[in-house]
Amino acid sequence: MEISLIVLVVVVVTALAFDFTNGFHDTANAVATSIATGALQPRTAVLLAGVLNLVGAFLSVEVAKTISGGLVDETQITPTVIFAGLVGAILWNLMTWLLGLPSSSSHALIGGLIGATVVASGVDAVKFAGIVGKVLLPAVLSPLVAGLVALAATYLAYRITARGAVGTVRRGFKAGQVVSSSMVALAHGTNDAQKTMGVITLALITAGALPANAGPPFWVIVSAGLAIGLGTYVGGWRIIQTLGMRVSAIESGQGFASGVSTATVILTSSHLGFPLSTTQVATGSIFGAGAARGPASVHWGLAGQVAIAWLLTLPAAAVVGAVAALVADTGPVGTIVVALVLIGVAGGIYAASRRRPVTADNLDELPVPPPPVDLVA
Amino acid sequence: MTINWGALALVAVVSLAVGVLVVVLVSLALVGLSAREPDAGGEAAEGTPTTGRLSPVVGTAAAAVCLLGAAAIVLYGLFLIVS
Fold first, then answer.
1. pLDDT tens, B12-49?
2. I need a surface site. Which of A61, A149, A158, A324 has the fewest CB within 10 A?
């Protein structure tokens, strides 16, 4: 009894750690373009996004859903499987953050859970058809849809405002960017904080601490909201730099159009029951808005790197989740060993990041500058 | 394996329509607000002087209507997040 309580505590703490990485990994989705155009100061932007993520965690009245629904056989899930899945997701989030690549935190979590489930219960417990329909296909289509919306919106924005006064137009678009960034941050808090609440609640249920079908207790809602809000506030500056400054030299009109595209696609898809990854939608929007001022103004090589990261997210997190499950399945000692290894590797990744630190103060120092803008557009 | 292509197509079409509408409304509003500035217009060079010049009152009124429309869509988005 005593020992399973220790395991449960480790699972809850790990889930909150994942929530934290989820926050700072995804800050860029909401604020990268606003920071790039100067619509918001960097620290103001992450504070705004952090607070709105926290608020978003409390807003939704929907009971937190389990992320694994339809992907793995849920009767086979144990606290150990959840723990191992979280370890895979956290490590992948940290690796991609180190490289400054935007990748889906949800896909990392799904991958980690799949890997851990395979080890614990065999391949039969994984529903591969669900993975194609819920993960692979949306991963291909969401950046295309978002990119198309942003492309069309940016093109029209430039056509229409060509007859306006330059200063008025720029100030107006920047104000619009603040609104669209806020909407994305709020929607992110609602969706992604719910995932962690669902994971913790699931762990509590499988451990027998909560009755089946219970909603998340209040302390779970508060701690999940705080973890994601704090993560967002800390700011994944490396990814902000990639999306805001390396993809293309974004102007306020493009930033506004991409923000509106991101917010619209996310809200439409989650409302119509075809949820898409916030990260992939935001990334697609920024590439689309960049391409509207001429394809040559976009750093397409970066798109290739991002696409590879997206392809690898699920399998890589699955492998780490599987290894973690192998060790953690040996008992509480194994779980603690995995937790210690996680802390060690995370510390190593953080140490590696200090070799080329990216902060709110040096965002403009790009490793590779974006291509010059093609003025024909 | 069933993929809900209908839902996906709907997401794409609705997103495109709403996203473009919001950006167009705000862009039009900004053109309207530009009429309030004394030396507004990069219009002169393009050579349609009669239609290009909005009076400040008309411009402001048009901007207000456009921004109200955009604000209504944003509020509906907020409603979707909360509900």
1. 999 999 999 999 999 999 999 998 876 544 444 444 44
2. A61
Q: What is the pLDDT of residue A5?
A: 82
Angle between helical axes of A332-353 and A2-37 (0-180°, round to 10)? 20
Number of Cβ within a 10 Å radius of residue A48 = 21
* Domain contains A334: yes
Neighbours of A57 (CB within 10 A): 28
CA distance A376 to chain B (A): 17
d(CA B74, CA A106): 26
List Cβ neighbours of A29 (8 Å cut-off, separation of 6 or more).
Answer: A102, A184, A188, A243, A262, A278, A279, A281, A282, A283
Number of domains in chain B: 1
Judge whether B65 lies within some domain: yes
Give the one of B1, B18, B82 whose C-beta lies nearest to A264's C-beta: B18
B62 belongs to a structural domain: yes
Q: Which two tokens stand for residue B33?
A: 């607000």
CA distance A371 to A365: 15
For A51-77, the pLDDT digits (tens) are 999 998 888 656 455 555 667 777 778
How many domains is chain A partitioned into structurally? 1
B79 lies in which domain range?
24-33+54-83
Separation between Cα atoms, residue A147 and residue A247, nearest integer Å: 13
Tokens of B38: 């004394």
CB contact under 8 A, A152 and B40: no
Q: Do B19 and A153 touch (CB under 8 A)?
A: yes
Domain range spanning residue A39?
Answer: 2-353
The set of residues, in sequence order, having a beta carbon less than 8 Å from that of B20 and lying 6+ positions away, is: A149, A152, A153, A156
Would you say residue A376 lies in a domain?
no
Tell me, what amino acid is at B1?
M
Dist CA A251 CA A49 (whole Å): 21
Q: Pick A265 or A193 by higher pLDDT.
A: A265
Q: Does B60 touch chain A (CB under 8 A)?
A: no
Whether residues A141 and B8 touch (CB distance < 8 A) is answered with: yes
The whole-model pTM stands at 0.88
Are the Cβ atoms of A260 and B41 closer than 8 angstroms?
A: no
Could you report the per-residue pLDDT of A243-302, keeping only the tens digit for each? 999 999 999 999 999 999 999 999 888 887 677 789 999 999 999 999 999 888 999 999
**In terms of CA atoms, which chain B residue is nearest residue A129?**
B1
Indicate whether B11 belongs to any domain: no
CB contact under 8 Å between B30 and A161, yes or no, is yes
Angle between helices A218-234 and A42-59 (to 10 degrees): 160
Is B42 within the bounds of a domain? no
